[in-house]
């Protein structure tokens, strides 16, 4: 067993809040207080009742405002998180063949789901090594282009855009760790889908998708066809329930409440530009520090691909990042370990809007304090 050095970081160096996990993310304390104050009349209420339906409607309307959704777009909700939505999209949004851009653990999962579906043709998979990103290309016979706005495992972000020449094909964008923190033109997407446990400072277990009229038409057509779709993954059922401001299955009421609080907080402070600006400031702090460091460097070498919501920082062989993360954890700085399957000697730091950029800057000073004592 590796012995962890006993290093105490002075209080004046510590961040005000030491939560930097990439999901579940930091939940703002005032949102928790609001939930606690509302618990007596909200928690334990049927999701078919007015109090919860109002909250679902508030979330759908708030997201429509936050993303400036084009006319005809609708916000759908369902249980199970993004993993469930990948299966639902495989059943209800891909007609015959899809193209997938894979450049990390999570972007690969949707491609795997499509490849395993016996009723679909083999997908066209375009891959890049972790730290890079592939480019979508229009191909005849592709009816769904599956993109990722931010690859959570590696800290690579790519702006969603319709491929030139893609025609009537749908563009499905996984925005799980991007939505609410990165700028986006949702009009470039037919399904911009995500879960609320990252930029929306809530818990998991819920998927949310902003869908275009073209996506809604395809959902209706495929679910009315001979293709068998389980009710839990049926996006037409999800759409029908969402239009009633409810979910098909019982949702986590706390998750709904906290997501609404985050959306309202962002809107009250200026909307998506406010949230993205906070992420920009945090990114400038951590990447600026790493770029000039003797023992650290950004894992993503292309500055244009560096995510402003998830930062991955590599260390040279003189630093054991696992020990560094353990020392930070002992001092109340939590969840900066790298993504487990990436296998890098690095720290991974969430830069979500709920995280104060000043706390990110404080984190870098704490890392320096520890390194001065272990090197």
Please describe the structure with a list of short key phrases separated by commas or semicolons.
375 residues; three-stranded antiparallel β-sheet; 10 helices; Aspartate Aminotransferase, domain 2; alpha/beta; 12 strands; Aspartate Aminotransferase, domain 1
Protein described:
By secondary structure, the chain is α/β, with parallel strands linked by helices. It folds into 2 domains: 40-268, Type I PLP-dependent aspartate aminotransferase-like (Major domain) (Aspartate Aminotransferase, domain 2), CATH 3.40.640; 272-374, Alpha-Beta Complex (Aspartate Aminotransferase, domain 1), CATH 3.90.1150. 37% of the residues lie in helices and 14% in strands. The longest helix has 20 residues, at 272-291.
Write a short abstract of this structure:
It contains ten helices and twelve strands. With 375 residues, it is of the alpha/beta class.
Q: Mind summarizing the main beta sheet?
A: 7 strands, mixed
> Regions with pLDDT < 50 over 5+ consecutive residues?
none
Distance separating the two termini: 20 Å
Mean pLDDT: 97
CATH topology label of the largest domain: Aspartate Aminotransferase, domain 2
Helix and strand element order: HHEHEHEEEEEEEHHHHEEHEH
Q: If you compute it from the alpha carbons, what radius of gyration comes out, rounded to the nearest whole angstrom?
A: 21 Å
Strand content: 5-15%
- Which word captures the global form? globular
Which CATH class of the largest domain applies here?
Answer: Alpha Beta
Structural class: alpha/beta
Count of domain modules: 2
Which sequence of strands runs across the widest sheet?
1-9-8-7-4-2-3
Give the oligomer, counting copies of the same chain as homo and different chains as hetero.
single chain
């Amino acid at each position: 067993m590796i012995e962890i050095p006993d290093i105490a970081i002075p209080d004046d160096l510590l961040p005000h809040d030491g939560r930097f996990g990439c999901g579940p993310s930091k939940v703002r304390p005032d949102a928790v207080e609001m939930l606690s104050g509302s618990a007596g009349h909200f928690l334990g209420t049927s999701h078919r009742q007015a109090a919860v339906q109002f909250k679902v409607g508030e979330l759908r309307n708030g997201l429509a405002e936050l993303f400036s959704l084009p006319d005809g777009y609708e916000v759908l909700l369902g249980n199970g998180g993004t993993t469930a939505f990948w299966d639902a999209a495989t059943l209800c949004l891909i007609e015959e063949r899809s193209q997938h851009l894979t450049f990390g653990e999570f972007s690969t999962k949707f491609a795997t789901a499509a490849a395993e579906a016996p009723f679909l043709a083999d997908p066209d998979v375009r891959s890049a090594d972790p730290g890079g990103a592939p480019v979508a290309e229009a191909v005849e016979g592709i009816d769904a282009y599956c993109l990722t706005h931010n690859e959570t495992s590696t800290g690579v972000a790519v702006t969603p855009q319709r491929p030139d020449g893609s025609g009537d094909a749908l563009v499905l964008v996984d925005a799980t760790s991007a939505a609410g923190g990165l700028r986006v033109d949702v009009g470039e997407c037919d399904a911009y889908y995500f879960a609320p446990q990252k930029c929306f400072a809530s818990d998991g277990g819920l998927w949310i998708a902003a869908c275009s009229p073209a996506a809604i038409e395809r959902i209706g057509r495929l679910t009315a066809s001979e293709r068998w779709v389980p009710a839990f993954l049926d996006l037409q059922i999800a759409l029908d329930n969402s239009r009633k401001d409810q979910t098909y299955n019982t949702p986590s009421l706390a998750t709904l409440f906290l997501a609404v609080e985050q959306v309202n907080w962002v809107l009250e402070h200026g909307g998506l530009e406010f949230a993205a600006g906070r992420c920009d400031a945090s990114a400038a702090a951590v990447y600026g520090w790493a770029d000039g460091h003797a023992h650290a460097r950004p894992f993503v070498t292309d500055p244009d691909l560096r995510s402003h919501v998830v930062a991955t920082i590599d260390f040279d062989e003189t630093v054991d990042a696992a020990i560094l993360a353990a020392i930070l954890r002992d001092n109340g700085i939590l969840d900066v370990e790298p993504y487990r399957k990436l296998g890098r000697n690095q720290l991974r730091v969430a830069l979500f809007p709920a995280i104060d950029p000043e706390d990110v800057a404080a984190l870098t000073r704490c890392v320096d304090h520890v390194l001065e004592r272990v090197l």
